[in-house]
Amino acid sequence: MYTMSGITVSEGVSAGRAFLLLPQAAESASTAPRALSASDESLKYRKASREFANKLNNAMSGTVPDKVRDLFGAVSSYITNAANIRAIDEQIAQGQSAINAAKAVLLPKIARFSHEDAELSAEESAAASGATADSSDPEMQVVASELSSLMRDFIATIDSVEDDSEMSVPRLNEPSVIIASDLTPARFLSLHTELVRAVVLEGGQASGHLGTVLRDLCIPAIYGVKGALTIKNGEHVLVDATHGSILVEPPQDTAQALIAQQDLFTSDDDDPSDSDIEVTVAGSMGAIGEIDRMARYLNHGLGLLRSEFLFLNYHHEPSVEEMVHTFASIFAKIPKSAPLTARTFDFAGDKKPLFTLDMDETGPLASYGAQVGSALLHKELRALLLAAAGREINIVFPLITRISEAKTLTALLAQVIEELQAEDVPFGNAHVAVMIETPAAVLSAKAFASFGELFLIGTSSLAEYASAPRPPEDYFTPALAKMIAIACKGAHDVGVRVGIAGRFAMRTELLPFFLSLGVSYLTTDATSITKVRKELQSLADQGHSPHFDAKLYANLMDIASTDDLQQLLFHDDFA
After folding, report:
1. Is residue 177 within 8 Å of 232, Cβ to Cβ?
2. In terms of DSSP bridges, do strands 429-436 and 392-397 run parallel, antiparallel, or are they unpaired?
3. Where in the numbering of this chain does the PEP-utilising enzyme C-terminal domain appear (predicted)?
4. Counting runs of H as helices and runs of E as strands, what totals does the chain give?
5. Rounded to whole angstroms, what are the CA distances from 293 to 209, 216, 281, 298, 307?
6. How far are the Cα atoms of 313, 345, 376, 432 from residue 316, in angstroms, in the given order?
7. What DSSP designation does 546 have?
8. Which secondary structure element, helix H or strand E, spans residue 524, and what is its range?
9. Rounded CA gap, 312 and 320, in Å?
10. Average pLDDT over residues 201-221
11. Can you tell me the distance from the alpha carbon of 236 to that of 220, in angstroms, rounded to the nearest whole number?
């Protein structure tokens, strides 16, 4: 037995036989001379791009993360874009092979996307799906990197169309731990993911889209593992992603003991009623591959449904009936006694649907940050209430930055309720919640708190704003801590419940801090629910409960350095 270590990307413990997924030979293949006629080479490219686009489109038909869906859509459009095909045909006519032509045309444009001073044409921008955004943004840099990786994956398939092997992805026949130098979401999702027990990468980007896929599919993952490719195919590998360690050929009793602590694939979840903690802990849902597989994690409730991802692959604006059917199929998995919280559509950034969005041209929602118009919101609110008939539902409005937006959205909900009452049909009892995820919302928190019964603080988005223009930090920064505290104080002053969402909600070392700001609601990824609940129970046993500590707040406002924050959070009496 020997061990390796790396950076945890998706927590959990699991084991399987090592399966090495080696890089596709795009670079070496692209040096091959053209062996076919120009017309045959052109046809080869068209066939390869069509098959690769179909693979991506098929992957998008499932419930993959919204960011991954947008990435796949971008690549699918890009490689089949008419302007790009014409440019590739011109290269082929000059004597290039299909692979060389694709590499010469596609890769430079993707590389330009990652430079701040690059400006693509309108047609290129459309093909690159959202490249008009500021490419100095860390999120845009991640997108550029993954676009490039996916493009190289595609180029490696061009010659394989002759034997219909498409992406030449090997078939898994047993529970496996994937070992690779790096991996794109497309290549991963082309595997038989039901047999993937963990992923170990020598490289990887923790903020990338693959990490989102792995977390939402509850697959443990560790990145940045030096020497990972020295692991031999077929060796038994135990991945303890919770602690960032990999054990190769561990003793059987060691593996069984670690897996028994957190077996994500066979163990039953704990009973949510068997606890006296004063904090609601429920799972977030946005990119779950198989809802039935995840149902056991939802017995604590649905802490946050990111509703837009359910309809991003629709080619038409979803009807009320379609939305009711989709929402009801999910709500049916949630016990009626458990919390049910759904966020209305948020199509901002890279979450553009395939259908055309009809935005308000005038009025308070004309520039609404969630990029959705009042007509579609009216339909969605109606669908959410109908799907939640006979139960309580928290409806969360995202990306509110202005009081006029809050007034309009709450008035729209009231209008829908009046209409359903007049129709005398059963519908859910709605409670308004406001998502606090921008500095504008934080600075006006007290005013926004008066519009709802729950504040839900989005720590992932706030972390990006807190670190801008640098990439988001993995550690808890003074700026992020202060924004969370200001939002909590706004809720406290008005008597509104406050909750935490996003990637910092699962950080158990921060729970005393959250409790001391009055937090009584946490929504986290499914695999972290048990861990968070156990830590909260331990804190409850020590006498901790949600309350707003004015002294802590005042001290927090006076600090500026990370050292001071560490001292405040982890060495003072409240921790």
Report:
1. no
2. parallel
3. 277-538
4. 22, 16
5. 21, 12, 20, 10, 19
6. 9, 15, 12, 28
7. -
8. strand 519-524
9. 15
10. 78
11. 16
Dihedrals φ, ψ of 340, to 5°? -135, 115
Model confidence pLDDT, tens digit, residues 293-346: 556 667 788 999 988 877 876 778 999 999 999 999 889 989 988 999 999 999
d(CA 262, CA 531): 9
Q: Which amino acid is at 454?
A: L
- Around 280, how many Cα atoms within 13 Å sit in the side-chain half-sphere? 25
Q: How far apart are CA 369 and CA 498, in angstroms?
A: 22
Residues in the chain: 575
Q: Quick one: tokens of 565?
A: 């924050």
The sign of the CA dihedral 415, 421, 426, 430 is positive
Which tokens is 509 given? Answer: 């070392």
Q: How far apart are CA 70 and CA 216, in angstroms?
A: 16
Picking from 229, 261, 228, 262, the residue whose alpha carbon sits closest to that of residue 245 is 228
Give the other-Cβ count within 10 Å of 174's Cβ: 10
Phi, psi dihedrals of residue 524, rounded to the nearest 5°: -140, 175
Residue 322 corresponds to which tokens in the numbers above? 């379609």
Rounded CA gap, 268 and 300, in Å?
A: 13
Eight-state DSSP code of residue 425: -
- pLDDT at residue 157 tops 90: no
**What residues have CB less than 8 Å from 464, skipping those under 6 apart?**
138, 139, 472
* Interatomic CA distance for residues 204 and 46, integer angstroms: 30
C-alpha span between 26 and 32 (Å, rounded): 11
Distance separating alpha carbons of residues 69 and 77, to the nearest angstrom: 12
* Distance of alpha carbon 79 from alpha carbon 73, whole angstroms: 10
300-339 in b/e form (b: 16+ CB < 10 A) is bbbbbbbbbbbbbbeeebbeeebbbebbeebbebbeeebb
Residue with tokens 């059987």: 252
Place of tokens 């290549």: 187
pTM given for the model:
0.63
pLDDT tens figures, 542-551? 999 999 999 9
CA distance 521 to 51: 45
Q: Given the structure tokens 């520039």, which residue do they identify? A: 367
* Residue found under tokens 């692959």: 313
Q: Is the dihedral of CA 477, 479, 484, 485 positive or negative?
A: positive
Tell me the mean pLDDT in the region 223-251: 90
Radius of gyration from C-alpha coordinates of the chain? 25
